[in-house]
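In the laboratory, one determines a bound structure by crystallizing the protein with its ligand and collecting diffraction data. In a computational setting the workflow is compressed into a single prediction: the sequence and the ligand go in, and a structural description comes out. We illustrate the idea with magnesium ion.
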Amino acid sequence: MAKTLHVHTGRPYDILIEHGCLEACGEQIRRVSRAQKAAIITDSNVGPLYAGAVSTSLEHAGFQVFSHTFSAGESSKTLGSIGGMLSFLAEHAFTRGDLIVALGGGVTGDMAGFTAATYMRGIDFVQIPTSLLAQIDSSVGGKTGVDLPQGKNLCGAFWQPRLVLIDPELLATLPPRFFADGMAEAVKYGCIADASLFAHLERENVQDFLEEMLFACVEIKRRIVEEDERESGRRMLLNFGHTLGHAIEKYGHFEGLTHGEAVGVGMLLVCAAGERNGLTQAGTTARIQSLLQKYGLPISCEAPLDTLLQLTANDKKRAGDTIRFVLLRRIGESFLHPLAIEQLPAFFAAMKTL
Ligand code: MG
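The predicted complex, in structure-token form:
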């Protein structure tokens, strides 16, 4: 059964969750675009699997289709790659009325989106996320960008897609570690805003209610993004576990734990500190820990906590000398808790590691 969510951001758009919507994407995209040309931007892993089907469907819908494939991985997420994509569009004489189709995971969506945001000062783009992480998180909300040598996502733009097409069928072939990577974000949504989603994940196997789960996660993200499109307040709640998670990723030079794995450990660390400081209901960390384990995610990391706190002090989300951590009151209820850099050791005191 198809489900549609309407996102009321500055530029409103729909998110469609439907089995088989990748193969029928042309028809859906034609409803929102009168473009003559469509550029499929994809990577060397996803392109061979799905670009053919997407291209055929777009052609049937009357688009002239061009494909640009970059080599898969975070190391491609550079301004150099963006330059290549912009030149590709210019070489094929794309105009402001034409369209980009981002086909792939988070890296692809971020880069294709940023290319769309900047080519001729902004053209339309459609997201077809192929990983669980991209389907429930990065494809919704309009954050686009690239890494700089100095850090991740330091250059980018808020640019909303025209349409997001989520095809649950694509998840069936994801390697288990990639699926688990996305599950960490699903657990996060339960933690910050939806106790019943969290309980559902505890009780049942996610494969038995996959579409419902996708819908629940995207619905939470939609609500929060609508309230705070440019992340000045509530949207920061989506960063639960991410402040320390980013530090864990940095510690491993982005080659150790995956994003989701690091965020899972980050959630445990900050939640345990919340409990210790009397701000979080006792027992909350234990529930999150069991749920992460259930979905094959790690519950600890090699990095010493004081090193993580030092790395955190350099985080880009730092506002002056204060870091806004996301804490839970209980499962399903979150709040921002600003801490001055010098308060960090005391707040996390007595926690060498988990
Ligand atoms: Mg994330």
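The mean pLDDT is 94. Keep in mind that any predicted model is a hypothesis to be tested, not a measurement.
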